Amino acid sequence: MSRKRLLLMLKPFDVYPNRHPELYSRFSHHPQILGYLENRRKVHKDAITICQDILHRKSVEWEPIFRNNLSQPIRDVDLVVTIGGDGTLLQASHLMDDSVPVLGVNSDPTQIEEVEEFSEEFDATRSTGYLCAATVKNFEQLLDEILEGQTAPSAVSRMLLCVNSKQLPTYALNDVLMAHPCPAAVSRFSFRIKRNGQSCTPLLNSRSSGLRVSTAAGSTAAMLSGGGVVMPILSPDLQYMVREPISRPANSSLMHGFVKSNQYMETSWFCQEGIAYIDGSHVFYSIQHGDTIEISSKAPVLRVFLPHNLLSKET
Questions:
Q1: pTM (global) more than 0.90
Q2: What is the mean pLDDT of residues 40-48?
Q3: Of all helices (H) and strands (E), which one includes residue 123?
Q4: How far apart are CA 184 and CA 242, in angstroms?
Q5: How do beta strands 175-179 and 198-199 pair?
């Protein structure tokens, strides 16, 4: 039997202060902040070392790579392991189809006691790791269960975007934000929900700060902060919300709603400039006046080994 092949995608170290000496001078009067940042780097580095030591003991082939050094689609491996947080898993997902599963390792979980201790000085939140099933404490156990076929990945929905009928190359795991590139500018657009080419809702015309659409996985992030609701993690539906509308039309109840798995959202853009941001600010595509953007959950699912607490909410 051939040995399993793993790709280890790592969060880089240069997000921490040792690569940014200017931070030391900026926070020279706040040694607690410097100590916190340096500790975050150490904890992350130690987590990588621990996970690699575990892999050395297993009968698998594996290759480590920092996430910023990978830009090609991930193929010819049996499992992707991300070590970092949700951002590293998100970045991996943009290079994956539904043929390879992914396991997220949260290398630097938030410590509640630490957050409380420094609450009057700075935000000591570390990594949320919402989609990460593992930490260094249970990585070996989960890895063994995966390699032995004792656990299976979950199928998590993603979004497919088409601009003027042309499919964009990146699938969104969390959310999409369409907005004017200047946050102070008005975004003008219209949208309706359709199914098989037929309208399911009236046309809604909007002047606002943009339109956000999320998957179930992304419903706990910016969507929730903006007033949305948390969706079951395995729901194939999408949730949308018009951000900060300037005025509310007669059908204003449609400014927040859902797109069923057999439907899609058709949006017409009416600003000279616009950007579709996918899963944050790092991946984006330009849109312009007259463009038609179609959003649906027809993208290939992402096969993710999810935390048990997320799956328990499904039952």
A1: yes
A2: 94
A3: none
A4: 15
A5: unpaired
The DSSP symbol for 244 reads: S
In angstroms, the CA 243 to CA 223 distance is 10
Give the model confidence (pLDDT) of 156-185 as tens digits. 999 999 999 999 999 999 999 999 999 999
Specify whether the CB–CB gap between 304 and 154 falls below 8 A: yes
Q: What is the pLDDT of residue 59?
A: 94
Instruction: For residues 190-213, give the mean pLDDT.
Output: 96
CA atoms of 246 and 300, how far apart (whole Å): 36
Contact at 8 Å (CB) between 31 and 85? no
**Which sign does the torsion angle of CA 305, 308, 314, 315 carry?**
positive
Per-residue model confidence (pLDDT) at position 13:
81
pLDDT in the model for residue 23: 62
211: Cα within 13 Å, side-chain hemisphere: 32
* DSSP state string for 139-188: HHHHHHHHHTT-S--EEE--BEEEETTEEPS--BSSEEEEE-SSTTSPEE
d(CA 140, CA 145): 9
Q: What is the pLDDT of residue 58?
A: 96
The continuous run of DSSP H or E covering 2 comes out as none
- What tokens appear for 51 in the block? 């996970």
CA 88 – CA 241 distance, rounded (Å): 26
Please state, in angstroms and rounded to a whole number, the distance separating the CA atoms of residues 203 and 131.
35
Average pLDDT rounded to a whole number, residues 37-64: 95
- If you write DSSP's letter for every residue of 49-98 in order, what string do you get? HHHHHHHHTSSEEEEEEEGGG--SPP-S-SEEEEEE-HHHHHHHHTT--S
Task: Provide the token pair at 190.
Answer: 């219209």
Place of tokens 């000496």: 21
- 3-state class of 308 per DSSP? helix
Count Cα atoms within 13 angstroms, Cβ side, for 114.
16
Q: Is the pLDDT at 18 greater than 60, yes or no? A: no
pLDDT at position 25: 66
